[in-house]
Amino acid sequence: MAKLFQNQVVLITGAGRGIGKAIALAFAREGAIVAANDITPVNLTPAVAEIQSRGGRAQAYIFDVAKRIPCFSMVEQVLNDWGQIDILINNAGVEPHAPLLDLDEWDWQRTLDVNLSGAFYLTQACGRAMRHQGGGCMVNIASIAGRAFGLRNRSAYVASKMGLIGLTRAAALELAPYQIRVNAVCPGVIETEMTAALRQDETMMESWLSSIPQRRLGKPEDVVGLVLFLCSPAAAYINGQAINVDGGKVMC
Ligand SMILES: NC(=O)c1ccc[n+]([C@@H]2O[C@H](COP(=O)([O-])OP(=O)(O)OC[C@H]3O[C@@H](n4cnc5c(N)ncnc54)[C@H](O)[C@@H]3O)[C@@H](O)[C@H]2O)c1
What we know:
This protein is of the alpha/beta class. It has a single domain, classed as Rossmann fold. 46% of the residues lie in helices and 15% in strands. The protein contains eight helices and seven strands, in the order βαβαβαβαβαβαααβ. The chain has helices spanning 18-29, 41-53, 68-82, 105-133, 155-175, 196-200, 202-210, 220-231, and strands at 9-12, 33-38, 57-62, 87-90, 136-141, 180-187, 242-245. The chain has a seven-stranded parallel β-sheet with strand order 3-2-1-4-5-6-7, sandwiched between helices. The structure holds nicotinamide-adenine-dinucleotide (NAD). The site of nicotinamide-adenine-dinucleotide (NAD) has 30 residues, from helix 1 and strand 2.
């Protein structure tokens, strides 16, 4: 049977673990060539090896997406290696926890740099390549923290994810003439390293579970289906949307 993304090149940031890794495995299963990015080889090297051991195609690109020059260098390297970039998944993210009144400047700036500026640099670099190629698709992994209700002790994270949804809409508007679609996926609480501390706190867990109609946290695989769908021909007329994957916690 034909695979959904056969020979398409997909660049995925933060692909060493968690949601990014699950997305990378899924694209590889569907025949894509995975350009897998992370800031460190610690998890990325085994993640790429896992894809290859399952018969998929993947290559590691160790770059810090918080900075403009590394983002552009990475895109240039992927283009040199594979000749094209069909899909960009802006997934890399950080989430410092601190009350707003105590959050230090470094954490504030780093969060905006990784979660928002990185997505902007890669939208620009990949957008130029996709315009030249005649089209493409981008998905930004935002968060329900960027929707209506925010999140306590995560001011930088909330601001970055709201910004990312804004960037998604602006990019969808400006890139549509080049046949490039841009959408955002907004996960709820997903079982990854990012939420390890929360999941160890019984009170927090009960509070979250009681507010999720499906009464469970999500798994990285729960996010994958929507990402693949948004990049597929079935979603050809879906553009500039931010869609929640959260068991029904946020219904707007
Ligand atoms: N886990 C959740 O509950 C949840 C909920 C909503 C949204 N999200 C978002 O999903 C995305 C993935 O989250 P996760 O839970 O898998 O997190 P994670 O912490 O498990 O993985 C994030 C990955 O991003 C990489 N990364 C961090 N900074 C980077 C940088 N500057 N350059 C390149 N790579 C970098 C990390 O090394 C790591 O491999 C993030 O954007 C996060 O905000 C997660």
